[in-house]
Amino acid sequence: MDKIIIEGGHPLQGEIVISGAKNAALPLICATLLAPGPHVLENVPDLRDTRTMLALLEALGASWQREGTTLTIDTAGLHSYEASYDLVKTMRASVLVLGPLLARMGKARVSLPGGCAIGARPINFHLQGFQQLGVRHQLDQGYVEAEVDGRLRGNTVCFDIPSVTATENILMGAVLAKGETVIKNAAREPEIGNLVDMLNGMGAKIKGRGSDTLQIEGVTRLRPARISIVPDRIETGTFLIAVGATGGELTLSNCDPSLLPSLYEKLRAAGVEVREEQDRLHVARRGPLRAVDVKTMPYPGFPTDLQAQIMALMCLSNGLSLITETIFENRFMHVAELQRMGADIRIDGHSAIVSGTGKLRGAPVMATDLRASASLVIAGLAAEGITQISRVYHLDRGYDDLVGKLSRVGAVIHRERE
Question: So where's the catalytic machinery, residue-wise (predicted)?
Fold first, then answer.
């Protein structure tokens, strides 16, 4: 198992190229199951999660090859409808094969998913939605066993709260359903827009892209797709916050500046300069950090996936900030590790009260989930002395060459075996 060693106190200078989005790549990989033949996905990040998803598709009968950031996935040989526990246990997004398998094969057997321990994240929204489309299901020894007679049947599906993966799963099932499906209170994340573009390019008929209501007119068949994965807004945000923590000046290229308005607002209020161009961002910090309050919300609100990172930034400010988490009930596990580095944080229900001290100290810390890992890297980059981060396999699930990208812009950071 690897650990990351960081010598703090070095401002970041230079340019970083942003990779494709993990949260877009995973559903798009699953969507290839809907149409037999070779699909081409471009700008695909090389992550532990994308490799796991490809292994899952391979177990179902698909084949694939990668050249750089381009994936070719051939799903013509699909022969299985079971997603086993051994593959699903490490990644919640693996439940996204449920919709495509039901749409194409009429049945699916999918292990209940795992992933980061940041909350319960049940799949009841998925199952209730598929029930509305005519699916029968039962839970048996940790597996969801689902089937439908003939084609899925169009219907109205209304979520109590917006769910990204449930929206994506129902959407992928509905494109091959008989009749019209309407998804109400759908999640609006840009990654869902990427999926809608792919499905429409395959011959689906989906209206309402980017809104909370999606209308899907089912078709009888789809064709293979060619599409590019959108840039990773969470990776983009992580590097923006890293400059806020360390000082210096970075240019982020191959990104989409339109995707993070809520983060720019908070960073500018905190004293971080952010300048937007067509596909580039320029970020710099030259003065002291000011404390700001943050509340996570569904898109286009402040992303829960950047909450841990901005908390690390607020530890370095001079003032009091209130960080409220409304999406996941157990997403403050990084607090104890930041406290080991000298942070003054108190948890009160769904909020964390951060008393910024203006500095952190290097310490041995342990990553507890994907985004907590990124927050500890940010803290280590800014801290006095040496920080050692263990259990960094979490980081590999969602960041493509994070250590390499940071080291090329002035960070003193490396990996080594524990």
Answer: 116 (proton donor)
Domain that holds residue 408: 2-18+231-417
pLDDT over 90, % of the chain: 89
Q: How confident is the model at residue 118 (pLDDT cuts 50, 70, 90)?
A: very low
- Shared-domain flag, residues 203 and 54: yes
Residue 116 annotated in active site: yes
Q: Are residues 201 and 291 in the same domain?
A: no
Lowest-confidence region among 56-65, 83-92, 118-127, 380-389: 118-127
Angle among Cα 236, 330, 357 to the nearest 5 degrees reads 65
Q: Quick one: 411 and 395 in the same domain?
A: yes
**pLDDT tens profile 348-402:** 999 999 999 999 999 999 998 888 999 999 999 999 999 999 999 989 999 999 9
Which residues sit in the known binding site for UDP-N-acetyl-alpha-D-glucosamine?
92, 305, 327
End-to-end C-alpha distance for the chain, whole angstroms? 6
Quick check: 252 pLDDT over 80? yes
- Residue the block writes with tokens 């923006």: 240
- Selected catalytic residue, list 116, 158, 255, 315: 116
Q: What is the pTM of this model?
A: 0.95
**For the chain, what is the mean pLDDT?**
94
Domain final residue, candidates 228, 243, 273:
228
* Structural domains in the chain (count): 2
- Which of 228, 244, 264 is the last residue in one of the domains? 228
Residue 116: predicted pLDDT: 39
Query: Dmax of the chain from CA atoms?
Result: 64
Considering the domain architecture, whether residues 13 and 51 belong to the same structural domain is answered as no
Rounded to whole angstroms, the Cα distance separating 196 from 310 reads 30
Rounded Cα–Cα distance for residues 74 and 61 (Å): 9
- Do 93 and 11 share a structural domain? no
Do 202 and 319 share a structural domain? no
